[in-house]
Design a protein that fits this description.
about 600 residues; alpha+beta; D-Maltodextrin-Binding Protein, domain 2; Dipeptide-binding Protein, domain 3; four-stranded mixed sheet
């Protein structure tokens, strides 16, 4: 059967009154693995079980609930053993404590296979999706996982969880429990192609355990889950230990074979990245993802690395890299003026920073959809112009006449031409230099703070701040602990910060969370920069509701142009490799796959 966008590979899909049950959901075509597959292709199905692995996390935590705004949750509660890696490396997607209805494949785009649900049925009219749960699924306290748990979790997360849940599930009309093992979600629109996949990845929580508890309050009691691990020990702010469940109900499923191999996973918390690195050198931490190019180039010259007891690898991935940048909070002056934002962008000397600080490791990011076919290039084509035309009077004229580019310097650190161009823009915006200070028409100086969650980022922020001081801008750099930083981000209490907007192969509901006017006005959303523009809102809906890949590509590229020419962030850089270092006490399958790195497939030697 031909691949159908926003559909599932299933017999009798086209024209059927009711879809036949399928083992998988594939939004971009057909799933690669047929029903009855033996195991995921990137695992060792005979990997031995046992041993302990210890990973590091920065900051602190005071809650065991990662789904709410209040509190800071412990690492590894859903799917990531190695913190601060990024959502694209969330392992197999099988929750470590709580599990989802389907499990995304780490080697396929927008594809998930049955887990808690043994089958999925997507209605021919695209207005509902049904999941048939496995009767053997159990929480760790022995209670069955039922359709009532699924419905309760959905309703609770949408009404009491982080605002992003409300955004993601906005097009769900209702959820119906047809019997203890069958749950059906009904949609208000057939156009939201991402929605079925979002629902399939819903973490299912135990309704009976949360009954009578305030779901919105930080959680300190250890909850039961259906996943392969239970929380064995927790010392808030210091340590959390997960123990593998020998009675895990799903241990023999094909989707789980060869994964979740460690008997214990221990997450140690450090307030300082330097101390965490020293703990790794001493063998107290077993594995780390290195995201600082200088450390990768110079920080691994210690005895264990030289004699091979510590191994390193640059692991290639094939994932969209999204946008990382210096975000500007447009809720605050002076960032409300696009000319000011553009001037601050022109002043950033990437070439000097890449050569001096990063050892040439990175590529400049020029798109919010970087490393994918959704990135805007050149000038808008005819189809993009149709989407942009209604907003032409509101958009910068350059968007229609110039490809988006950024200055390229000689890397010497002397970027005077770019600073002169930046100063010209600032003068257009009403700023002038007086007594070596940049002041507005009332003589008030431009002054703002660069907020950071980690001292290691200061080596990036401080040189940029020093460059901005050459323009007469009074820039200070402030570092706070991660918990305070998250609280400030949730309340948009910042001027400028370093942040990222991850993207996948199938941009969808999260675009509303990133860019819409509604999210700009709601605390706890991801619209950190306060983007609120009718053109952006309209294009976001075109992205979310695109009926096919070609339409998605057009809408995403048009949205990309509007965001880039809005200069909401100073684009940074990206890499197509994960830098991984580990003590040679562990093994991995050695099979290249799309995500590149997946700790869930490793095992102790």
């Amino acid at each position: 059967m031909r691949a159908v966008l926003f559909g599932m590979a299933m017999a009798g899909f086209v024209g059927a009154a009711r879809a036949e049950p399928s083992h998988a959901l594939a939004v971009l075509g057909e799933p690669r693995l047929a029903a009855g597959f033996a195991h995921l292709p990137y695992v060792n199905p005979d990997a031995p079980k046992g041993g302990t692995i210890t990973v590091a996390s920065l900051g602190s935590f005071d809650s065991l609930n990662p789904f709410i705004v209040r509190g800071t949750s412990g690492a590894g509660l859903f799917a990531v053993w190695v913190p601060y890696v990024g959502s694209s490396t969330a392992g197999s997607g099988i929750g470590h404590v709580w599990e989802s209805l389907l499990t995304p494949s780490a080697d396929e785009a927008a594809t998930a296979y049955g887990h808690l649900a043994k089958s999925v049925e997507f209605a021919p009219d695209r207005l509902s999706i049904a999941f048939e749960l496995r009767p053997e699924a159990r929480f760790s306290d022995g209670t069955p996982v039922t359709a009532e748990d699924v419905a309760w979790t959905f309703t609770t997360l949408r009404t009491q969880g982080r605002p992003s849940f409300r955004v993601a599930f906005a097009d769900v009309r209702d959820v119906t429990v047809e019997n203890p093992h069958r749950v059906v979600f009904h949609f208000s629109s057939s156009q939201n192609r991402q929605l079925p996949l979002d629902i399939s990845e819903l973490p299912v929580l135990p309704k009976h355990w949360f009954a009578g508890r305030d779901f919105t309050a930080p959680l300190t009691d250890i909850p039961p889950g259906s996943g392969p691990y239970r929380i064995e020990r927790v010392d808030f702010g210091r340590e959390i230990v997960y123990a593998r469940r020998p009675d895990w109900w799903a241990r023999d499923l094909p989707i789980a074979r060869g994964t979740e191999n460690f008997d214990r996973v221990k997450v140690e918390y450090f307030r300082d990245a330097t101390v965490a690195m020293e703990a790794f050198k001493a063998g107290q931490i077993d594995i780390r993802m290195e995201n600082i190019a200088r450390n990768w180039a110079t920080g691994y010259d210690f005895p264990a690395a030289r004699d091979g007891r510590v191994r390193r690898a640059e692991i290639r991935h094939h994932l969209p890299t999204g946008m990382q940048g210096f975000a500007m909070n447009t809720r605050r002056a002076p960032f409300q003026d696009r000319r000011v934002r553009e001037a601050l962008t022109l002043a950033f000397d990437f070439e000097w920073m890449n050569k001096t600080l990063f050892y040439g490791a990175y590529t400049r990011t020029l798109s919010y959809f970087s490393n994918s076919d959704l990135a805007a290039t050149g000038l808008p084509d005819a189809e993009e112009l149709k989407l942009l035309a209604p907003f032409r009077d509101r958009l910068p004229p350059e968007l229609f006449t110039q490809p988006y580019t950024l200055p390229v310097t000689d890397g010497s650190g002397n970027n005077r031409p770019q600073l002169r161009a930046a100063l010209a823009l600032l003068k257009q915006a009403g700023w002038s230099v007086k007594d070596r200070a940049l002041v507005d028409r009332n003589g008030q100086p431009m002054r703002f703070t660069f907020l950071l969650p980690d001292p290691s980022y200061e080596r990036v922020a401080l040189p940029y701040a020093e460059t901005l001081r050459k323009l007469g801008i009074d820039v200070s750099v402030r570092t706070v602990d991660p918990a305070q930083y998250q609280h400030m981000m949730d309340n948009y209490d910042y001027d400028m910060t370093l942040t990222g907007f991850p993207e996948g192969d199938l941009p969808g509901n999260e675009q509303r969370d990133y860019w819409s006017c509604a999210s700009a006005r709601t605390s706890g959303e991801m619209n950190l920069m306060g983007v609120c523009d009718p053109a952006v809102d309209a294009l976001v809906e075109k992205v979310v509701n695109a009926p096919d890949r070609a339409s998605l590509r057009t809408a995403a590229r048009a949205l990309d142009r509007v965001l880039l020419w809005g200069f909401y962030a100073v684009p940074n850089w990206h890499s197509q490799t994960w830098n991984v270092a580990w003590w040679d006490r562990f093994a991995e399958p050695g099979i290249p796959f799309r995500e590149g790195f997946n700790l869930d497939t490793w095992w102790a030697k």
